[in-house]
Amino acid sequence: MRVPLTVADFLDRAETGFADSTAVVDEPTQPAPPVPTTSYGELARRARAWQAGLDALGVGEGERVAVVSHNSARLMELLHAVPASGRICVPVNFRLHSDEVDYIVDHSGASVLLLDPELDEPLKGIDAPQRFVLGNETEDALMRFDIEPRPWSQPDEDATATLNYTSGTTARPKGVQLTHRNIWINAVTFAMHTRAWERDVYLHTLPMFHCNGWGMPYGLVGLGAEHVVIRKIDGHEILRRVAGHGVTLMCGAPAVWNAVLDAAAEWEGELPGNGTVRLVCAGAAPPTRTIQRVGEELGWEFNQIYGLTETSPLLTFNRSRAADDSLPAEERARKVSRAGAPALGVQIRTSESGEVLARSNVVMDGYWNNPESTDEVLIDGYFRTGDGGSIDHEGNLTISDRKKDVIISGGENVSSIEVEDCVFSHPAVAEVAVIGVPSEKWGETIKALVVPAEGVEAGAAIEAEIITHCKQRLAGYKAPTSVEFRDEIPHTATGKIQKFKLREAYWADRDRKVN
Known about the structure:
The chain is built from 16 helices and 26 strands. It is globular and about 70 Å long. The strands form six sheets. Strands 2-1-10-9-11-12-13-14-15 form a nine-stranded mixed sheet, with helices on both faces. By secondary structure, it is an alpha/beta fold. The protein starts with 7 loop residues before the first helix and ends in an 8-residue tail after the last helix. Strand 13 (301-307) and strand 14 form a beta hairpin.
């Protein structure tokens, strides 16, 4: 027997087995009226109301519904309701400039555009055949409660469920087509690797628009777990939610956990979640010191993953193993900083040039209306990640760098991630990004852009200290030759540092971005 694996399976199971259990606790502070805390029975009822509303608008199967929103209960509802009815959900990064949002809405051919109230005015020039503001307007003018929506005529696990536009390094974002099968398998394997169950309380510290919240809005719904929505990331507020809701599981980039560690230093009383919280980190390579501090200062379990939007995203998973319990804390943290072993059903290898290649049921169907780009990354049954890496004797993948971000100094390849980890281990450093800048002697030389720790006075003395610190721990050619202090280092919404933007100022007068 073959039954299509579709997004509908997750909420169907939750409504059947956990109808009276708490499903979603919405963000209380937002411009729209929060959705009252819902049970899984009510969540399913609201999903059907969205579907019936789209039916009434005449939005057919395969048509796109774009949603530009911060984390909210309504966004989570739409991630279920839209694909489960045979339509395609397009969750859009709410931090994008209006021109970028306009491109995505136009490129995807969205029939409906749904906006967070905070974004209605900034995005007023962007239109679609149907446009609504989430909140009172959608509750009154779009949703049709207690009207049975039409069923999906022919459920197909290979149909596109979501279009997720990548932030990437190209001039225009690409629409990643994730199928129902992609999402289903990713959600189930992700939940398995995180040891998720119905008694978990999941805090949405990861943007839901980013690769559908890594699939957690699906997998944890299918298990009947409780979801707590947080709109804006703040370390103190995360700790308050952990304490107030009994949060046990979270996902996010290293910057999120750094914010929590900073807040923990000012927390009065016992820190919440000690021995009960599991966090999952990705989006950038976490410094070893951060991993160690999460365990020692918070008492939270640190798990590391690697993946991309094009892979739904889960490719590898890493947590500290029982065999490593006797190792020093710093060494345990170093081992967890690796991307990890392949997730269930994933095959990983590296090409002759060191590029990481992946083969799995979670790899996208392709880029929306972009066959040329699709053909560039799907070759001979493998997906080309564009990341450089290596696989060690324990079968764990380590990402050395974005291949385009490798610094070649004096003919030697230097991993900026390795240098960043070393720079970050200096106590004067709060945050760092390492880039290659032009050098007449070496072609490129290594510059560290550093945000100093609180109370540290930036200057030549600290710069010399950091360079010496690195020379004592790295091969000489890997050490920064200069340190530039900054107030902040910009990140994407998913916590990534786009180094090509940081390099622009140093390479602006050159035809090539390598030397």
